[in-house]
């Protein structure tokens, strides 16, 4: 196991909505240049856990450390300050404005007169979208007019444009075609090479095994276990997701089936 | 670089020839087809009333008055666009106008004269500042209730509608305050609010110059980045129509003569002799109209060129996304209501000055006209969509209907029926348009 200080550590995180414990004492960590797959059935609490890291929710209990230092993340702005960028499962795009406006939302480029520098933003958008989706042409249209995959590309572009240290990808390829999915896979490997840590949430075990170094499996808001992909088989991970049974190659978490 | 090719030439956007409608083509040259529709509707209304009134509608006098009467609603409609774009509403503007107007009357007729006497040269500007400041504060207060306490805007401003109207009465126990300061009155129009023909031409030419400079600068920027440019003929057409509209407006305002007595006094005041046949001296543009235009330009700039405007629209498109992107949505919402209130303050000055009196019933039903102007002007109640220019045109449409009906002698109940029906039909047509082309 990697013994250096993790880039991000989430320790004993809990949050409840009404009576439902969406996340219950979950701990995950992520090192620089590492891809950690977050797996689990629908409603397991994956999105909720990473939304706590991205500042969308505030945890009821638990601690977040960035590079070993405890940090308080109480808004998306705080997370971004620590270099944590997120591609949300719902994409979180403003439908009525164009790709450039979405990519730079909250971090607009300004001219010396403090007006919006739309021309530079559009030109930067063309560059970053060129990496993700070279066929993309509809720069002037509100993102409402885009296809699901194109919208997803815009959301990815927004996350990678600002030199993230930590990238959270919540089902980033759910709406993408095979070519674009492959492009995102290549992008993930490239970003990893640059030393960026990536949380990857996906239901595609095959993809996760291809891209991730480790996987953490959640069930009913709790972590079943964490394992290096080299130490477990896909069937064993499937068992963790479905029945919560922690195999020998994995480090069991509080959610592991006892006995 | 393939990106520089015009959008229509790229395979991703190619559509069958018959689908490339006029609207598509207009969008390509960045002219909003909805604006054209509104101008057409306005033309129909104007020509219709002109015909029904035997030529009394399209006279310099009537058009001049029409513009002056539109100013107050148009100013508030600019703010209402932002409010509605954020998926909210403001029902309190009419009552707030009444309250702020009463306070302005009190300040300039009772308080300031105690300090520096009547007709002090600073009275008008202090009054205007008080109005804008008070309106802004009341607006921010309502906005904060909506944004931070999460009370629905409909309820907060419905409460405001009652509270401010009551407060307007309390200021003087219902007494009307009059007359206003003579330097304040030009804000409302009238003869003292007409700036004269020479100044009007000068302003008209400056505006034309700014329009042309804006078009050239925008084009140069786009060229520098290698983006698709509008065809030259389209640029020329837009520039020509815009400048033409400005100059025709000036010409009409200048063609409305001052009453002979006043023209004579003005002539003699300049030390000239009043010729026996009389002299034609035009009104020129009116101060409230210029004020409304200035507000329109400023708010358009705010919405399209500044970060704040970008946030307003993003919040309207997807409040959650704006928040996740790090936008302080509550602060923005509070400021939107603050701006709305400040504009109510300006309108309060315009209507108080025009009436030459502050009455506690001023602004009654204005909220409905303001909302109607914004909605007729293409602001979507679902949020995220709207333009300032559209709302100002919408205000002109509403006022044209109203003035036209007065001119041809339609009685008030029927006026209300017609305005109500037009509002509903206009929004219905807009919905159809959106579905087809949106
Ligand atoms: N804002 C919320 N309010 C109330 N309950 C919520 C909220 N967000 C999530 N939950 C609940 O928390 C639990 C975990 O949801 P979460 O979205 O984290 O699941 P997930 O693992 O991402 O599932 P999926 O694979 O379907 O995306 C669910 O039971 C969900 O109903
Ligand atoms: Mg999820």
Describe the structure in your own words:
The complex is a heterodimer of chains A (259) and B (438). Chain A has 259 residues and is α/β, with parallel strands linked by helices. Chain A has eight helices and eleven strands. In chain A, the strands form two sheets. In chain A, strands 6-7-8-3-9-10-11 form a seven-stranded mixed sheet, with helices on both faces. In chain A, strands 2-1-4-5 form a four-stranded antiparallel sheet, with helices on one face. In chain A, a hairpin with a 2-residue loop joins strand 1 and strand 2. The longest helix of chain A has 16 residues. The N terminus of chain B is likely disordered. Chain B starts with 21 loop residues before the first helix and ends with a helix. Chain B is mostly helical. The interface between A and B is medium-sized, with 38 and 30 residues. The site of magnesium ion has 4 residues of chain A, from helix 1.
Topology record:
The complex is a heterodimer of chains A (259) and B (438).
Chain A: E1 8-17, E2 20-30, E3 35-40, H1 46-53, E4 61-66, E5 69-71, H2 76-81, E6 84-87, H3 99-103, H4 118-132, H5 148-161, E7 166-170, H6 178-193, E8 197-201, H7 205-211, E9 214-219, E10 222-228, H8 234-243, E11 251-252
Helix pairs in contact in A: 4-5
Chain B: H1 22-28, H2 33-52, H3 60-85, H4 93-116, H5 123-148, H6 153-172, H7 197-224, H8 232-254, H9 260-269, H10 287-305, H11 307-317, H12 319-324, H13 329-355, H14 366-376, H15 388-407, H16 412-437
Helix pairs in contact in B: 2-15, 3-10, 3-13, 3-14, 3-15, 4-5, 4-6, 4-13, 5-6, 5-13, 7-8, 10-11, 11-13, 14-15, 15-16
The complex binds adenosine-5'-triphosphate and magnesium ion.
Magnesium ion binds next to helix 1 of chain A.
């Amino acid at each position: 196991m990697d013994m250096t200080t993790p880039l991000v550590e989430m320790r004993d995180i809990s949050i409840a909505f009404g009576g439902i414990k969406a996340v219950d004492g979950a701990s995950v960590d992520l090192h620089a240049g590492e891809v950690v797959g977050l797996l689990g059935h629908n409603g397991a609490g994956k999105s909720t856990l990473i939304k706590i890291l991205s500042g969308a929710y505030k945890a009821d209990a638990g601690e977040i450390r960035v590079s070993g230092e405890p940090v308080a993340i109480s808004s998306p702005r705080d997370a971004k300050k620590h270099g944590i960028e997120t591609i949300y499962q719902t994409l979180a795009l403003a439908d009525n404005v164009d790709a450039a406006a979405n990519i730079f939302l909250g971090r607009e480029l300004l001219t010396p007169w403090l007006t919006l520098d739309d021309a530079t933003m559009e030109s930067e958008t063309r560059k970053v979208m060129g990496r993700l989706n070279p066929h993309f042409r509809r720069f002037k249209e509100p993102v409402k007019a885009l296809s699901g995959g194109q919208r997803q590309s815009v959301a990815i572009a927004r996350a990678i444009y600002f030199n993230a240290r930590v990238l959270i990808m919540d089902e980033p390829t759910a709406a993408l075609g095979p070519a674009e999915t492959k492009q995102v896979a290549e992008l993930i490997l490239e970003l990893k090479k640059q030393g960026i840590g990536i949380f990857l949430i996906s239901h595609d075990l095959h993809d996760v095994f291809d891209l991730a170094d480790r996987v953490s499996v959640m069930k009913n808001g709790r972590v079943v276990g964490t394992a290096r992909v080299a130490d477990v088989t896909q069937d064993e991970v499937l068992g963790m997701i479905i029945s919560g049974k922690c195999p020998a190659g994995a480090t069991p978490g509080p959610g592991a089936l006892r006995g | 670089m393939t990106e520089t090719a015009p959008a229509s030439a790229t395979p991703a956007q190619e559509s069958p020839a018959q689908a490339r409608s006029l609207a598509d083509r207009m969008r390509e040259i960045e002219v909003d087809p909805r604006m054209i529709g509104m101008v057409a509707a306005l033309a129909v209304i104007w020509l219709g009333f002109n015909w029904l009134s035997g030529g009394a509608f399209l006279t310099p006098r009537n058009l001049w008055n029409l513009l002056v009467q539109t100013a107050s609603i148009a100013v508030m409609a600019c703010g209402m666009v932002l409010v509605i774009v954020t998926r909210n509403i403001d029902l309190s503007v009419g009552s707030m106008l009444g309250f702020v107007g009463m306070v302005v009357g009190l300040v300039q007729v009772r308080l300031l004269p105690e300090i520096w006497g009547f007709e002090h040269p600073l009275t008008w500007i202090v009054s205007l500042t008080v109005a804008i400041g008070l309106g802004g504060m009341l607006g921010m207060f309502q906005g904060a209730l909506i944004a931070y306490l999460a009370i629905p805007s409909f309820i907060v401003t419905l409460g405001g509608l009652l509270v401010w109207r009551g407060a307007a009465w309390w200021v003087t126990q219902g007494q009307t305050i009059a007359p206003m300061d003579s330097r304040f009155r030009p804000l409302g129009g009238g003869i003292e609010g007409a700036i004269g023909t020479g100044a009007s031409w000068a302003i008209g030419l400056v505006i034309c110059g700014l329009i042309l400079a804006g078009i050239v600068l925008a084009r140069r920027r786009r060229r520098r980045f290698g983006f698709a440019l509008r065809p030259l003929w389209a640029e020329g057409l837009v520039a020509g129509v815009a400048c033409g509209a400005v100059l025709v407006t000036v010409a009409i305002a200048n063609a409305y003569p001052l009453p002979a007595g006043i023209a004579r006094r003005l002539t003699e005041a300049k030390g000239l002799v009043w010729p026996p046949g009389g002299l034609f001296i035009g009104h020129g543009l009116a101060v409230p109209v210029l004020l409304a235009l200035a507000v329109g330009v400023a708010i358009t700039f705010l919405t399209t060129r500044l970060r704040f405007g970008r946030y307003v629209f993003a919040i309207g498109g997807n409040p959650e996304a704006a928040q996740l992107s790090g936008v302080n949505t509550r602060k923005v919402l509070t400021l939107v209501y603050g701006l709305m209130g400040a504009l109510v303050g300006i309108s309060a000055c315009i209507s108080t000055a025009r009436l030459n009196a502050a009455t506690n019933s001023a602004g009654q039903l204005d909220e409905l006209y303001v909302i109607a102007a914004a909605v007729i002007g293409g602001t979507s109640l679902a949020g995220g969509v709207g333009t300032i220019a559209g709302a100002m045109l919408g205000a002109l449409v509403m006022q044209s209907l109203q003035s036209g009906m007065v001119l041809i002698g339609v009685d008030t109940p029927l006026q209300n029926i017609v305005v109500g029906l037009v509002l509903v039909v206009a929004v219905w047509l807009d919905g159809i348009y959106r579905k087809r082309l949106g």
